[in-house]
User: What shape does this take?
Amino acid sequence: MVRVNAIYQNGVFKPLEPVDFKENQQSGRLTLELIQNEDALAWIKQASQFREEMAARHGILPDSAIDIAEDRKR
Assistant: This one.
C-alpha cells in the first residue's frame, strides 16, 4: 500500500510528494481520507514546536533552499 498526500485541482488529484509510478501506470484503487481542519492545525503546531526545539539545540534553521545554499557556501 502507498500513502500519498494530494491536492485536488482542476478535476485532478495531484500528489504533494514524489511517487514511484511510471507515467500512465494504473494505480489500482484510490481511497480518499479528508483531513479535518483540526488535524491540519495540530500538525502545523507540532511541526512548529519541533522546529523551535531543533533551532534551540542546533542554532537557527534556514527557512528556504536559498538560505540553505547560502549557509553551505560559508
